[in-house]
Amino acid sequence: xxxxxxxxxxxxxxxxxxxxxxxxxxxxxxxxxxxxxxxxxxxxxxxxxxxxxxxxxxxxxxxxxxxxxxxxxxxxxxxxxxxxxxxxxxxxxxxxxxxxxxxxxxxxxxxxxxxxxxxxxxxxxxxxxxxxxxxxxxxxxxxxxxxxxxxxxxxxxxxxxxxxxxxxxxxxxxxxxxxxxxxxxxxxxxxxxxxxxxxxxxxxxxxxxxxxxxxxxxxxxxxxxxxxxxxxxxxxxxxxxxxxxxxxxxxxxxxxxxxxxxxxxxxxxxxxxxxxxxxxxxxxxxxxxxxxxxxxxxxxxxxxxxxxxxxxxxxxxxxxxxxxxxxxxxxxxxxxxxxxxxxxxxxxxxxxxxxxxxxxxxxxxxxxxxxxxx
Length: 374
What we know:
alpha/beta
């Protein structure tokens, strides 16, 4: 499926130590670019899940980044690597990496293009002299949502003309519900066939809305006794085990006995496909990778109506929106889905079509290649 005659030499950068949507989409995009005939390597932090998964997928990793790394030392090492390599493009998925990338590029006199994808909102303005130095070398910035694009323009020292909207995408072949034996998945989880399975998915970290999800579950149990089962897919990130323990404890406090915690899983698509309804209660999500994954799997969704989610869900068309941080509002939206199988079917079909048209990773990869070759 090669689209380019010259094999681009690309260095992806992501110094994050977590394993969530940002890191997953970084790896998935890198793999898609490799499939298109590029030479791609991953600049990352040593010992991270990203490094492990990239190596397992056959990609070369360069573990120079991370909190434990010395910035001056990493700059010198990267400068040497750049001078001894024929790198055409460096694409960072974490703005903090610019502290190493920009000096290394300048000191090596490299003409490689530098791009940055902003996956997260910045809460502070970055227009001081140091940030102007870092961002001046950037050739283009990709925003994963309209919310993030506006945030970049407001907080970063760049011209709006170099800020482009390229949402995250998913591999539609991997997120195909017909490839999952849903009955077998539910059986493995110990969930009876006559129960509606309502779940949320993603890493367990503050801000994802686990508390409100459980509070809404308690409300729904009162409204639909004996008809529901709940599921939380995913586990805590490194260093956040206490948060997961708090959430499990809250479920007990709220007397939610009909709930399954899957813990960390390497096959989220299989588990999400088994849901009858997905809830996405994040407080302030920049995008919502789990949300488009569920939509691709024909799982109807209710989501917190704020920030990047508004690029994904059109209320009453491709899903239902509820008020952020509001368990009652969340329960009301989910209740509508519980009460109408026809609404669930209609929303799920429309959601899948929206993902196919707007969030196909193949389309996003083609857009990246166009910018790389400009």
